[in-house]
User: What shape does this take?
Amino acid sequence: MRLRLLATFLLTLCILLFPLPAWGQSKYYAPPLSFSNAELTRRDFSGQVLRAAEFSNANMELTNFSNADLRGAIMSASVMTMANLHGANLTNAMIDQVKFTNADLSDAILAETILLRSTFRGVNITGADFTDAIMDGAQIKELCKIASGSNSQTGIDTRDSLGCR
Assistant: This one.
């Protein structure tokens, strides 16, 4: 009986002196936001920090992401018709199979972004930085026809970032 009481006392003392970390409660950890399969038409995310947020299969027509921090975001198979991504940072994002019809990607940073099978009809890419973005040849050829300007944040020329000839 005394041994059990002593063990309980020592265990309690250890917990008080050396508490276990509260997993997921740290001020440095925030789980990624998920907007997958959401209806986000006309939403305003301008200037927001949305690192690693998930927007897969979302409808983001006319949505405003201007100057948003979307580094590492996932936007696979979404609709971004007439979306405003002016000045947004999409570095390391996964943006495959996205419809960017008439979207504004001017001055956006799309460095090291996966853009395979995305469509860019009527898109504005003036000053966009596509450095090391993963795209197929047809996408690059299509974008090179309209590429111009330099990114205000990185200083990279849009045509150079796409490897236009």
About this structure: Residues 22-26 have pLDDT under 50 and may be disordered. The chain has one domain: 33-165. The domain at 33-165 is CATH 2.160.20.80 (Pectate Lyase C-like). The first helix runs from residue 2 to 17.
